[in-house]
Structures are given as structure tokens and as C-alpha cells.
Specification:
Layout (H helix, E strand, L loop, with lengths): L6 E4 L2 E3 L7 E2 L1 E5 L2 E6 L1 H5 L7 E4 L4 E4 L1 E6 L1 H7 L3 E2 L6 H13 L7 E6 L12 H5 L7 E5 L4 E4 L1 H5 L10 E3 L5 E6 H11 L3 H17 L2 E8 L1 H12 L6 E7 L3 H6 L11 E9 L29 H13 L4 E5 L2 H17 L8 E4 L5 H10 L2 E4 L2 H6 L5 H12 L4 H6 L4 E3 L8 H9 L10 H7 L2 H6 L17 E5 L13 E7 L2 E5 L1
Parallel strand pairs: 1-6, 2-7, 8-15, 9-10, 10-11, 15-16, 16-17, 17-18, 18-19, 19-20, 20-21
Antiparallel strand pairs: 1-4, 2-3, 4-5, 7-22, 11-12, 12-14, 13-14, 22-23, 23-24
Length: 515
């Protein structure tokens, strides 16, 4: 006779996300795993003395959300920094920074994050002169929401004189620094005000709780080595209540390959994942690589982070080491280059398919879509960007013009070509239901997919992208009991998905959040 369940959930609308039997009303759990899914009658057969029975009262249950592109460890280091998101003017952002400077010891960094000039009345980047009005005693830095550009004051520039010759260090016509730093220059500056390792480790449980409230049970987190160490210590101390697929930046790739470490090393809580590579920048910073010029800056096409031959060398060495790649590519020129290069690498070094990923994949054309499908690539996309920047006059339209903006984030075409699709947030903002809403209710036809496909992209799609489809991503017997209980029905009321709420989040059969 079989042993009974620890927990039985009945009376719900359970979307399993499985292709076969996608709907059920009940599920049973034992030892942190699902042992049965089906009707109430089928599942209640697993009840015995001591089984806890929970009535869902008709609520929708979906698999735990897998945010397939996060910067959660970065977020842990940023707790306490000044949030500039939501400000409607440059002056409002400067006011927040002044308040932060007033409570910061002289000489210490004042750091603001998440400004978005597209939401400001001034619609321009902050400059050195703007931030000098915040403080001249403190180095002040304000980072754009996309993390590809930041602005600094004169005091910060005095500490960054060695960055003058780096790509992205902006000067005016007379050679005077404007205070705007992009890509390479800003990346180097970031190291100077980044939070120390102890702060990261202390704050990881806090950001995990934020994820739980949003229904996130797993993340694919982009990390530097310091953040990777912090996660490992948290795992050893059993303080990691979130499943993490670690995507280390490409500078760590030689050390990983030299140590014989390959994608998949780890356990169900912390696993070595892909190597994050950059092919271009962002549309917001005018650094995404485009074939045709930017609509509002006709002399600019963006940039490639690496020359094509160098990019191929990086992707080839990572592939040959048995490591998956997750390559950032936004502009159409970058998306085409990465797709072609990964195809060449796999043709030249055949063997196991590593499910190489293209992060963002915002502007693929038909040829690129066909090639991506043939090469077995994964499209890792962020539907929340539609809600953030696809509106009239917003970033996509102003940078790309109307015609290109209509072809941006073409999820329907991606699925039509049967390209594996996973969804993440890039932390802009976190919140799977927000992203799912915009994948269903996008501004343009090719952005819109069904609620079922959108939820799958945020669940089983993420599992597939991490080689974990046999252990999570769908609610099926044998898989981990990671699931979310919702208030509201995204399937019956698809235009109101953004009004649905997470009521409970369960990881491994344990409730980690309850509203």
C-alpha cells in the first residue's frame, strides 16, 4: 500500500502548464514533491490520517514562476540606495538625491538608481551640472534603469580620471566631460561604489522574500564572482529559500573552464548555469546595435561590445567547455550577429546542444527566426519591457520609429517558429504577472500571445532554458512542489491579469508567502 500525502489541495483551478492534461482541480504533495495531480476524487485517494487537506475555494494555481533573467544579487547590494524610479521629472529625482546626501557622511558615495528620462518632462539624461546641484562634498552617481548608463557629478569625476579613455566616457565638443558614462566606462565606475560582499549575503534573504511575494520560486540570476560566493555561503548555511540558476559574467568563463566546471553543476537550490556575454548595449542608452540609425539620433547606430571575431572566440571557448551561453542582444544587428555566430560555433563543434540563449532577442527578422529555430537557440525575453516602453512616444517609438517598434518583442512569431521561449524581468520591474499581462495585451499583434503560452514562458519555458524541465516548471507527479495560488483568473479575464494578486507561494511543499 502506498504511503499517503503530507498535503492535499482540492477545489481549485490548477493550470499544470503541461501539454498533456493542462488542467486539474487538485494536487497531492509528499516530501516536497508532487505525487498526484488530477480531480479532487483522484487526489483525495492519497489522503490518510495526518494528511493536511487545503481547500482552494476555486482559486487558480499555477507553477511557481521562474524569472529567467534577474539581477537579484545586485538588488541585495542596492538595498538602501536611493530609488529614482517613478519620478516624473529630473528635478524630482534630484530632490530625492539631495535628501540622501543630507544623511550621508561627507566623502561617501550618494547612489541613486532606476531613473528613466523617458518618463520625465525634461526627457534628457542628467549631467554633471545637474548632479553638482545635489552635492559637491560627496561623489554622486545616478544610474539609469537599464544599467547601461549613469551620470556623475564633478566630485565623482575627480575619482574617475583614469576612465577618460574608455569607451562610453562622454565629453562635449570642447572635450569637457559631461558626466554621462556608458557601457565600459560606467561598468568600471560601478566597481568603486558596489556594496561589499557581507552586505550582499546579509540581504539575500530579504530580496528572496520580495520574490516570494511576487510568486517567484526560481531565478536565473546574473552574477559576478563575489555574488556567486555569497550565494554559495547562503546555500551552505541553509539560508537560500529561492532556487537559483547562476549566470556568471563572461570574465569568469576561463576560470570555470579551467576548473572543469560545466553547466548544471550543483543541486536543486543552487546550480551553475550559463555564461553571460554582451553583444550590444541598450536602446535607452543608444548603444543597442541597429542596422539603420536611431530614429531620434540619425548619426548613431549603437555599438557592438566585441568585434565579431572576438565575440565568436568567446562563444566558441565557452561552448567547447560545456557551458551554456546567455548572450545579451537587443538591436537587430546584434541579434543577427549572435544568431549567426552561435550557429557557426555549433556547426564547427557539434555534439550536445547546449541550448544557448539569446537574452532580450528584441528585433529578430524572419531569417533570424528561422536560423534560431534550426540552431536550437532559446529566446529569453522580458515582456515587462512592453508595458514599460512600448507606449506612444516612449522609448521604443522614439528610438526606433513606428515601423521598427511594431516589430519589437515579437513573441507570436517566436512561438510560430517553435523557438523555445522563456520570460524574465531583468528587474525592470520584477513581477511575473505584470510581464504576463503585457505578453497577452501588448500594443501590437505580434507581441500578443495566449495567457496559457505566456504563463508557460514564465514557468516551463524557464525550466527548459536551464535544463531543469524534468524537475520543475510544470505541476506533474515527481516534480518539486513549487506553485503559486492566485486571486483573480488570468485565463478567464486576460485583460485584467495585472490586477491578479499572488495569495500564496509554495516552494518544495513549504509555504514561503501568504497574503
Amino acid at each position: 500500500m502506498h504511503r499517503g500525502a503530507d498535503l492535499v489541495f482540492v477545489g481549485g483551478r490548477v493550470f499544470t502548464a503541461a501539454r498533456v492534461r493542462p488542467w486539474a482541480t487538485a494536487l497531492a504533495i509528499r516530501d516536497g514533491r508532487i505525487i498526484a495531480v488530477g480531480t479532487d476524487t483522484q487526489v483525495e485517494r492519497w489522503s490518510e490520517k495526518g494528511t493536511r487537506r487545503i481547500d482552494l475555494h476555486g482559486r487558480v494555481v499555477v507553477p511557481g514562476f521562474i524569472d529567467a533573467h534577474t539581477h537579484l544579487a545586485d538588488s541585495a547590494g542596492e538595498l538602501g540606495w536611493t530609488r529614482l524610479g517613478g519620478t516624473r521629472s529630473l528635478e524630482a529625482a534630484l530632490s530625492r538625491l539631495r535628501k540622501a546626501a543630507a544623511r550621508t557622511p561627507p566623502g561617501d558615495w550618494v547612489v541613486g538608481v532606476d531613473w528613466d528620462e523617458a518618463k520625465w518632462t525634461e526627457r534628457r539624461f542628467p549631467t554633471r551640472e545637474d548632479l553638482d546641484r545635489v552635492s559637491r562634498e560627496h561623489p554622486v552617481v545616478a544610474r539609469r534603469i537599464d544599467c547601461h548608463i549613469g551620470s556623475v557629478n564633478s566630485r565623482a569625476l575627480e575619482l574617475a580620471t583614469d576612465l577618460v579613455n574608455l569607451r562610453g566616457f562622454e565629453v562635449d565638443g570642447s572635450g569637457r566631460p559631461t558626466g554621462v558614462l556608458k557601457e565600459d566606462a560606467f561598468e568600471e565606475l560601478y566597481d568603486r561604489f558596489e556594496s561589499p560582499e557581507g552586505v550582499l549575503e546579509r540581504n539575500l534573504p530579504r530580496v528572496a522574500r520580495i520574490a516570494h511575494r511576487l510568486g517567484i520560486t526560481s531565478v536565473h540570476d546574473v552574477l559576478n564572482p563575489m555574488e556567486w560566493r555569497a550565494y554559495q555561503r547562503a546555500r551552505r548555511r541553509d539560508r537560500l529559500r529561492l532556487r537559483v540558476y547562476a549566470m556568471l559574467r563572461d570574465r569568469a568563463a576561463p576560470a570555470l573552464a579551467g576548473a572543469g566546471m560545466s553547466t548544471g553543476l550543483g543541486d536543486e537550490w543552487l546550480r551553475l548555469g550559463a555564461v553571460k556575454v554582451f553583444a550590444d548595449g541598450s536602446l535607452g542608452a543608444y548603444t543597442a546595435a541597429l542596422d539603420a540609425p536611431y530614429a531620434d539620433r540619425m548619426k548613431e547606430h549603437g555599438m557592438f561590445v566585441h568585434p565579431p571575431s572576438e565575440l565568436k572566440s568567446i562563444l566558441e571557448s565557452v561552448h567547447r567547455a560545456g557551458l551554456q551561453t546567455a548572450t545579451h542582444a537587443i538591436g537587430d544587428a546584434a541579434v543577427r550577429l549572435v544568431t549567426r555566430t552561435l550557429t557557426e560555433v555549433q556547426d564547427e563543434f557539434p555534439g550536445q546542444r547546449m541550448r544557448h540563449r539569446i537574452e532580450h532577442f528584441e528585433l529578430p527578422d524572419e531569417e533570424v527566426l528561422r536560423q534560431a529555430r534550426s540552431a536550437g537557440l532559446v529566446a529569453s525575453c522580458q515582456p515587462n519591457f512592453i508595458g514599460q516602453w512600448s507606449g506612444a512616444g516612449d522609448v521604443y517609438e522614439s528610438r526606433l520609429g513606428n515601423d521598427r517598434a511594431r516589430g519589437n518583442n515579437p513573441y507570436r512569431s517566436i512561438l510560430r517558429h517553435r523557438i523555445p521561449l522563456c520570460f524574465g524581468s531583468d528587474g525592470m520591474p520584477y513581477g511575473p504577472l505584470f510581464g504576463i499581462h503585457w505578453a497577452v495585451n501588448g500594443y501590437y499583434d505580434d507581441q500578443r500571445i495566449s495567457p496559457e503560452d505566456a504563463v508557460r514562458a514564465y514557468t516551463s519555458g524557464g525550466a527548459y532554458a536551464a535544463f531543469e524541465e524534468t524537475v520543475k516548471g510544470t505541476l506533474e507527479a515527481g516534480k518539486v512542489a513549487d506553485f503559486v495560488v492566485l486571486e483573480g483568473d488570468p485565463f478567464r479575464e486576460p485583460t485584467a491579469i495585472d490586477r491578479c494578486r499572488v495569495v500564496e507561494t509554495w516552494i518544495g511543499g513549504s509555504r514561503v508567502f501568504s497574503r
